[in-house]
UniProtKB/TrEMBL annotation:
Residues 6-88 form the Shikimate dehydrogenase substrate binding N-terminal domain. Belongs to the shikimate dehydrogenase family. The active site is at 65 (proton acceptor). This is Shikimate dehydrogenase (NADP(+)). Gene3D superfamilies: Leucine Dehydrogenase, chain A, domain 1, NAD(P)-binding Rossmann-like Domain. The gene is aroE. It holds the Pfam family Shikimate_dh_N. The keyword NADP applies. It comes from the Bacteria. Residues 111-195 form the Quinate/shikimate 5-dehydrogenase/glutamyl-tRNA reductase domain. It catalyses: shikimate + NADP(+) = 3-dehydroshikimate + NADPH + H(+). CDD domains: NAD_bind_Shikimate_DH (cd01065). Its EC number is 1.1.1.25. It comes from Marinobacter zhanjiangensis.
């Protein structure tokens, strides 16, 4: 069987082995997918060793996505802009190729699975770290009318606006300090890591209206801290990052195997067990 894995630190809670095993079973592809914990200083060695032993593809997760991007010999266009890679493989000449499927995963989950279109909408994204940078390209490709990047540290949001102005097209792209955001939004995406500490980004409640759809890129069992806040403030619909997790995995699987697996049954399976 061809061998795949996810590499991270820590890695024991990763859902990727389960997701890819379900994809393999559902598509009839003969592959094995495991989890590898790389020591914090040894991503490069771990990756090279995996491919040297015949491994076919790696997913990369926290905290290694930037480093995986750096060590690659070549990057897809979307990975180049994302500054991070969650998907690695080798080409026929043995060069290490980095791709990034996180942004496509988010947008596919919003648009295809949930019927939430970004086109022409007022969109607010909270956070300006690696997770947000990784999804901005695919979000802008949907051509929202407006995209506000709001962050606790304004300078990081401004840096992202500068980096992505050439992809903004007709979208009004701007940076704000998170406490300075005003007005209502059609779609709010939380890309901060605040929920990891059970914290909320300090954004005004006026951003949420009864028509607002909220997407927390984070996934935890039950309702995430941010989504609970949004529901308490009247949001019509809240979505969490499980769909994004499964969709980014499906896109990696497609890159490696040339087949796109069904995702909704896998989401249902993970949600229910
Ligand atoms: P990641 O790769 O998950 O994006 P990161 O680069 O450390 O990780 O970025 C974390 C993001 O969450 C940042 O936007 C951070 O805001 P700062 O840039 O001001 O640090 C945001 N964040 C983390 N904890 C937060 C909190 N308690 N309140 C508001 N924002 C928070």
């Amino acid at each position: 069987n061809d061998l795949y894995a996810v590499v991270g630190n820590p890695i024991s809670h990763s859902k990727s082995p389960r997701i890819h095993s379900l994809f393999a079973a559902n598509t009839g592809e003969a592959l094995e997918y495991t989890a590898i914990q790389a020591p914090l200083e040894e991503l490069d060695e771990t990756v090279r060793d995996f491919f040297a032993k015949g491994g076919k593809g790696l997913n990369v997760t926290v905290p290694f996505k930037e480093q995986a991007w750096k060590m690659a010999d070549q990057r897809s266009e979307r990975a180049a802009k994302a500054g991070a890679s969650n998907t690695l493989y080798q080409d026929d000449e043995g060069r290490l190729i980095a791709d990034n499927t996180d942004g496509v995963g988010l947008v596919t989950d919003l648009t295809k699975n949930n019927g939430v279109n970004l086109s022409g909408k007022r969109v607010l994204i909270l956070g300006a770290g690696g997770a947000v940078r990784g999804v901005l390209g695919p979000i802008l490709a949907e051509q929202p009318a407006e995209l506000v990047i709001a962050n606790r540290t304004l300078a990081r949001a401004e840096a992202l606006v500068e980096l992505f102005t050439d992809e903004a097209g007709d979208t009004a792209l701007s940076a704000k300090g998170v406490t300075d955001v005003a007005g209502a939004f059609d779609i709010i995406i939380n890309g901060t890591s605040a929920s990891l500490q059970g914290d909320l980004p300090p954004v005004s409640t006026e951003v949420v209206t009864p028509d607002t759809v909220v997407y927390d890129m984070m996934y935890t069992p039950g309702v995430t801290t941010f989504n609970q806040w949004a529901l308490d403030n009247g949001a019509v619909q809240v979505l969490d990052g499980l769909g994004m997790l499964v969709e980014q995995a499906a896109e990696s699987f497609r890159i490696w195997r040339g087949i796109r697996p069904e995702t909704v049954p896998v989401m249902d399976e993970l949600r229910n067990n």
